[in-house]
Every structure is written in structure tokens, then in C-alpha cells.
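Agenda item 2: flavin-adenine dinucleotide complex prediction
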Amino acid sequence: MAGLAETPAPGADPGTGPDTGPGTGPVIAIIGAGIAGLLAAAAVAPHAERVVLLEQDSLPAGAALRRRVPQGGHVHALLDSGLGAIEALLPGFAEAARLAGSLRLPARSGWRFHDGRGWSVPYEGAPAVLSQSRCQLEHLLRIRVLRLANLRLLTGRVVALSRGPDGRIDGLRAQTGEGGPLALTADWVIDASGRGGASAAWLEGCGAPAVPELSHAPHVGYTSLIVPRAEPDAKACAWLRLAQPPATRGLVAAPIEDQAWIVTLTDRFGAVLPTTPEDFAAALRALPDPELSARLTARWPEAGLGPVRRFQIDRVRLRRVGSADLPAGYLPIGDAIATFNPLHAQGMSVAALQAGALGRAMAGLRRSGPGAVQARYLAEAETLARNAWMIGQAVDLAYPRLREGAAPEALRRAQILRAAFATAALRPDMARRVDRALHLLDPFSALWQPAPDLHLSPSSTRSELSHETTDHGAALGSL
Ligand SMILES: Cc1cc2nc3c(=O)[nH]c(=O)nc-3n(C[C@H](O)[C@H](O)[C@H](O)COP(=O)(O)OP(=O)(O)OC[C@H]3O[C@@H](n4cnc5c(N)ncnc54)[C@H](O)[C@@H]3O)c2cc1C
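Presented output:
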């Protein structure tokens, strides 16, 4: 290895890492210590001799917002599948999160949403959302992952991948603040550089062909504020009033650690959102639901309010890594593969599921060889991202302007999803199917395979929904 002076990760504990040693596996470099990079490290460390994690930000000691992860100031929900995947990689994580103030909120009862007609109706055994700030979640992951005995954290900005004479990616080049240019040799490079990373430029720079991608333009604006919460954790639930097309304005209020709400106002297609706490307060007071307004502003402005933060997501993309001609030795994960409309809360969970797939693929390295490991992982990682992508796109296609140019099968899936949503309002069995798909516990296709029995008992039919449900029933039934 040329160059990089490796420093032990803060809090490194040589006694708690996996049972590995020199010569027992590959050297793996990971670009980015965000959610995907940390989970990738947890997944591959048991199969590696050494893992080197490169991060351009100086990582904070606690749960703090980072410069290169500005989305960290907005509501970040972890789906049931995401928590399950993290727990499988880092046993005990869910309990540690609970002790640190994360709240586990079952869909429809604790994670409540308004469908334009009424608040969601609970049912037994619903999947649950883990609610906390993204900074807190990342901090809890860092505590666990940076303790791995065969992991080293380096602060540096990766500028290029390097490729050996056989065409395999054999390392990377980085720039550190003080140390200047550095080179690192590795058997595998995992790209967890996120939405702000330079993956396409790195691949082009080492002569690899461009990765084909799908894209979609949801045009979502977020504006968020953390406000104090009066309700104790035991009574807290999240309130989502997502925009029902053609309306564009929505609200997500999620209880998080430290007796706070993170409140996010969303809008579409460039509409103006509040930029000051005063305007934000005015928007909350004007909600069509006085009880919810009162909850969110109960302790306002008794404690100091944080800044109002903005984020704009105009375009999202899915890189078709499963069918791309990627160089050997290169493994992307998380937002480096796909970005999503954040309203569907999928990115972190997809990254966690991909990390699980990565660990399973790496476990077969000795048996099946590096080519098979890469092919298996990339196919599974794309499938996981594509499933979430299709769900998000199907929800977004409720807006007529987003339907222009959409493929017929995407429009069909959108119709099916609307049918399933409407039926779920009346039938707990369909609510369960919908929630399991939205939580990425079952594939999207589980909404229509096997075809649901759409008989609605008279007692369960809400009169105002009956006409729509019949139409949607036809959509589902015709599959
Ligand atoms: C407004 C908003 C709200 C969201 N809400 C949710 C939600 O509710 N639920 C959910 O699951 N997901 C949500 N997401 C998505 C979620 O933030 C990401 O999908 C998830 O964090 C996975 O990100 P990642 O680790 O791949 O990338 P990132 O979090 O972007 O991390 C990438 C890391 O790589 C580092 N890096 C980049 N380039 C280099 C380089 N050259 N050298 C060294 N380091 C580098 C960066 O500094 C960063 O630390 C939201 C996203 C947005 C924008």
C-alpha cells in the first residue's frame, strides 16, 4: 500500500471486532461514512482482512449535522425492513436506539397519515417506523461500526479510482487536508459516496463505460424545523398529511429524541415554502386540523427554535448496476446506486438491505470467487433499489404532469397502487399488504400476486369511498 497513514478509528476497541487477521480476507476500501458506508463496513468486516473507510467530512463526536450530508436536517424515517437489516448486521442496535430516544411507531396507529378523508385506521401487527433524527441514527451506527477491530477510518476526499493492468479496480487516490495526495491499494472498492459523490466521473476517469440509468423528476421541496414537544414519548405519534393530488403542500411531523418534533413542510413543482420560524409557525397554525396545530406549537416558542432548513429534490435516478459493464472490484451501494423521492422514506432502508446482500455475497468469496461475488451482489442491489424506485414512482404518477412520457407499465403500476391504497382504507388485509410493500418487506408485486379477494362487506364500506373503491377494485381485479 502506498501512502495513506492509517489512524485507528476513535473509540477503536480491539477486543470486540470480528475474528479476522492478516491473510484471512481481502482489503476493502469504502468511500463515504454515511449510512450506506457504515452499514457496508459492518457487512464486509467479518469477511475482510482490513476495511479502510474514507470520509471527506471530519466526523462529529456526537449526533450532529454534517456539512456534506445536508439532508440530515430533515425528517428521516427508517422503515421496518431497514431496521431489520441493520439489526441482522449489528445485533442489539434496535434496543440501543430505543435507549437513545428513538421511537418505534407502528404504521397507521403510531405513524398516522391522513388520506384526505380521514386519519389512518390501525390494525394489529402493522410494520413499524423507527423515528429519530438522521444525525442520531448515523451517530448510533458510527458508535458500533467504528469499534470494529479491523476497520480504520481516514479523513480524506477521494478524487479517483485506480485500475490495474488486468482492468480490475485496485485502489483509489485521495486528497487529505494536511497530508496532500494519497494512494490506497485495495482488493475491493465500495462506493458509498451518496447523492453528492462523483461516481460517474470516477468510472469515466478509469475508462469504464457509463452506467445506464433511469430518471424521474418528482420536484419536491422540503423545509424543516425542530421544535420542542410537550407529549411524552409513550404518547407520541407521527402525523403525516401528505399532499393529495392535485394539491401540492404536505406536512410530516415526527417525534424524535430529546422530546422534540422534527416538522417538515413539503411542496411540489417549485412552490414557495417558509424560510423563517415565524412563517413556519404561521403555516402550522393554518393547518386544517386545529388539534394537530395545537400539538405542534404547544411549547412554541418556549425553547429556542433551530434554523429552518431547505432541501430541493428535482430529479432522482436509478443506476442499472446489475446490467452495467462495471469494472471488476467496484461495488456501489446506497445513494451511489439510486436516489429516491424522500417522501417515501426509502433511501436508508434500501442501503441497509443492500448491505445485507453485500455481506451475503462476500461470505461466498472463497467458494465462488470475486467475479461471482460481484455479479451476485450487483444484481441483488439493483433489484432492491428498483423495487423501491417503482413504488415511489407509482405514488408520484398521481400527478398528471409527471405522467407525461411515463412508460405504460409504470402508469399501470400507479393505477394498481391507487387501487390498493383505496381498498386498504376499508380492509385490514389490504392495509397489511400495502404497508408490507411500502416498508420494503415484500416486493411491490405482492400487492397483486396473488390477486386479492376484493369482496367488501357492507359494514366495512365507507359510503364516500364506495364508488372509487369499485373502480379501483376493477383495476386490481383485472390483473
Ligand atoms: C430531504 C431528504 C430526506 C430524506 N428522508 C429520508 C427518510 O425519511 N428515510 C430514508 O430512508 N431516507 C431518506 N432520505 C435518503 C437518505 O438520506 C439516503 O438515502 C441515505 O442516507 C443513504 O445515503 P448514503 O449513505 O448512500 O449517502 P450519504 O448520506 O450522502 O453519505 C455519503 C457520504 O460519502 C461522503 N463522500 C462523498 N464523496 C466523497 C469523497 N469523494 N471522498 C470521501 N467521502 C465522500 C460524504 O461526505 C458522505 O458522508 C432522504 C433524503 C433527502 C435528500
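Discussion summary: The chain has three domains: 27-71+140-210+316-391, 219-313, 405-477.
Owner for follow-up: CH.
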